[in-house]
Amino acid sequence: MQKRNELYRGKAKTVFHTDDPELLILEFRNDTSAFDGEKIEQLDRKGEVNNKFNHFIMNHLEQAGVKTQVNALLSDTESLVKKLDMIPVECVVRNVAAGSLCRRLGVEEGMTLNPPTFEFFLKNDALHDPMINDYHIISFGWASEAQIAGMKALTFKVNDVLTQLFDQGDMILVDYKLEFGVDNEGNIVLGDEFTPDGCRLWDKTTRNKMDKDRFRQGLGSVVETYIEVANRLGLAL
Ligand code: TMP
After folding, report:
1. Residue 227, domain member (yes or no)
2. Which of 48, 88, 151, 185 is most exposed, with the fewest beta carbons within 10 Å of its own?
3. How far is the CA of 8 from the centre of ligand 1 (A)?
4. pTM to 2 decimals?
5. How far, in Å, from the CA of 18 to the mean position of ligand 1?
6. Of 111, 177, 211, best ligand 1 pocket probe by most atoms within 8 Å of the beta carbon
7. How many other β-carbons are positioned within 10 Å of the β-carbon of residue 70?
């Protein structure tokens, strides 16, 4: 398998073609972005930590029956993934109120949401990822009704699996964002990444933030804390 030209450069990852039209390479860079790219910094080892963390989580999800894009770990900062036709929406599940939910609805951070709530956002930095609903997705042709149902079911299945996993490491999975794509057989497959960059994790006892809020809020020890999250799950980094 040969690495070929760049297909797409995102804020934290770069996607490369390979000589196999069905496979791509995801490179996790040290770039760390917040507020739709307004704040960007390079954090030592973050690419490596997120690449290995993502591989670990995606494998765990595969074992629980969730189809993912991940194929193999190629190097410290690169993973081989299946090519998907990505759906341009972000699926967010929230177990505890935080972030934009608190700003939008005026609810207090830390309130437990029972049942967990679900939101769609349009993946569009220029528009600051606006919240959208099922009807927008269908009217604009971003996904079909069946694909919407599939994305919701998988996002909640991921919640069941990962809430339990993080709980075993004494962490609360507060919220997270997933992105899906369609493979060449028409299946909805989990793509992009699952790392502390795209979720909120709090220590169960102290409620200390162990995710990208450390970077957004300038709390420091960002990568060190991501490594601690990994270590608590049994992944030595
Ligand atoms: P929010 O509170 O800012 O709406 O974010 C909810 C969750 O989704 C949080 O874990 C961060 C994650 N997220 C991303 O990773 N990227 C994004 O572009 C957005 C909007 C949210």
Report:
1. no
2. 185
3. 21
4. 0.98
5. 30
6. 177
7. 24
